[in-house]
Design a protein that fits this description.
The complex is a heterodimer of chains A (452) and B (320). With 452 residues, chain A is an alpha+beta fold. Chain A is built from 12 helices and 12 strands. Chain B folds into 2 domains: 281 residues, MetI-like (MetI-like fold, Orthogonal Bundle), CATH 1.10.3720; 32 residues, no CATH class. A two-stranded antiparallel sheet of chain B has the order 1-2. Classes of the chains: A alpha+beta (452), B mainly alpha (320).
Chain lengths: 452, 320
Amino acid sequence: MIPTLLGVIMITFILFNVVGGSPAAMTLGKHVTPLALEEFDEVRGRNKPLFVGNWTSTRAYGNFDFATTIGSWKSVDGADSLSGEDSGGLILRKDALYPVPFAFPPRANAAYRWKIRYRLKEGPAELMWRDASTAESRSIALEPSSDWRTEYIRFETGEHPGNLEMKFELSGSDLEISRLELTRKTAHFFDSQLMFYLAQLCPLGIRDTEAGGRVLYWKGVDLGTSSNTNQRVSRMLKDGILPSLSLTIPIFAIGLVLSVSLSLVCAFFRNRLIDRLLVVGSVVLMSVNYIIWIVAMQYWLGFKLSWFPVWGYESPYYLALPILIGVVSGLGGSVRFYRTVMLDEMYKDYVRTAFAKGVSRPVVLFKHVLKNAMIPILTSCVIAIAFLYTGSLLLESFFGIPGLGYIGINAINSSDIDVIRAVVLIGALIYMAANLLTDIFYALVDPRVRLG
Amino acid sequence: MSTQMDNVSAESRSLWGDAWRRLRKNRLALWCLVVVVIYTVTAFYGEVQYRYYQFKDEQPSYQRPDLDSQYLAPSLTRVLKGEDRAGRSVVKELLRHPCGTDGLGRDVLARLVQGTRIAFLVGIVTSIIAIPIGVILGCLAGYFGGKVDDFIVWLYTTMASIPGLLFILAIAMVVGQGLLGVYLGIGLTTWVGLCRLIRGEVIKHKSSTYVTAARALGLGHARIIFRHILPNVFHIVIVTFTIRFPQAISTEVFLSFLGIGVQGEPSWGIMISNSRLRLWQGVWWEMTFVTIAIFLVVLAFNLLGDALRDALDPRLREAG
């Protein structure tokens, strides 16, 4: 149970954080300031390293690939792109000052680091920064070097990073830069996306008390924020669970009763016409695509015949058609499955004995076979529960029922990562909980099975 | 794969021969086989057509809008345009748009053929992804047991506990729109059932005498697994392939319907999604023919899968 839970968490993390692209760019679009992207990521912990790391990328300075463009340096007077054999670089001419073109001011009280790959043939160069509010100035010298060399330059921002001025001061020779990247120091080595995700999911948090100590407190599970509606995901799920259950529970219950009774009919009339018809009928039902069921029934029963409302969630009657579709579309597969289960039991010794003793067919079926067939039926119920959770995806969005499926489909259409991740996670949790319940039921129903 | 199958049929002709004899007695299954073959040929024809237009670098005929022939109802014969409408010298052309045309005047039948191509592509490629994963992991888990088994069981339990369709949707969304997302989504999530079955069978075979004999002869693990045990459990792979094929097709229809799957090509899902709204305006044929096309192939595969299961291994029935 616990390893599976961890596995599910890891899979959702790998799927949405490692493999998936940046949700900020996906939701906000291309024509948006780097600051807005950074703020979007900050809320979701996306501006941290994936697993562990001391340094993380930042959008405060766009890390341009000088091979293709010198990016925001174009707006700096005198900055030029390298030409000749070393083309694909930035050149800053000697005896001048060049302000660093930040996209937005770095954050306050943080440590940043430049990674600079440069060439400086003669005299020295200096990178200096000055806090305009305190007039405090610091600088670091770049050593002359005729070959490309890489240097890391670390600097700290003050209280008011808006006042930070950072300039390259050059004397003696031109500074050629082939690569210039800015990274920000993380709070600590484990300050990563993975830890952020785990901390979100862990219902316990650590808080500093006024007295100076630290206490453990209950903060609840944080499933993130929808990038589409800006709502808390947990809030959306809470609102969606009731409509979903009002749809799936009737489908599940009616479907179960109906398919078990039909399979009993099959077992009762085994290999007779009615059994054959039911078997063929269930394969046919199974082969009709789920979408076709929805589209056709909505068209015929809802639109043409006007027996049912077509769209909405206003009264229980609005649920009738989706429930009908859900039951009918699932019926084929489950009748076939339960029939196999029943027939397997029918070949057992105890059934033959019962028949030999002269017990009537109905009594054998309902008293002996059904009881023993409960175990595989229970197992399949678990699978059915998981299936219902996903099966309602389409039904809900087709009939405008504001449940989890509706939310899920909307989220997928708008690439709302946090919502999808939460829906996947909750789905897995439901499945695992159902699995656990079945195990417990097993022990209750079947005396041969003992827990633990 | 094929060499292994050849080996099996060479060494133990009776098993596969028996299965074929049992299958042949089943008339319905033979008809299903015929349907599957027809669909396969159609899909192949669609592929050739697609390659041809790609090679010629022009817009395929099934994509080219023809606004003169919008919403033509299905009909076997059709009056050619520009003919005398007074009733004299009317030239009829046979089988022009026999299944009608859609809102842009494109031939529904030609688009169905392309839909078949994509459905089969998805069925085959996802099988190529899922079946090796399931078989190899199942064999390793069943044969080695212990830590390896624990890990693989943990892996598939984890995969199984994520709701299938949602998982596929999420993968397809992360990978991006297009067929690749569909392949990976379906392929990477549907190996669990096969893996479970193979693992169970391999555990049974592991303790049988022929494996003990092979081990006594000093054969390597890989050889025992893949040359000796695998041929004996290979019928599971065939049955699984037949059963998962229609499921993959249905899932592709679902994904394309939602707009996550195929882009800019006439897949069945896209055809359903296009014709859904036209249905309300009385354009019934596109939806009807897509429904029939999907229904027939899924039904044929379902029935064939059952028949194969009965023919190859009746015990598998329980595994559902």
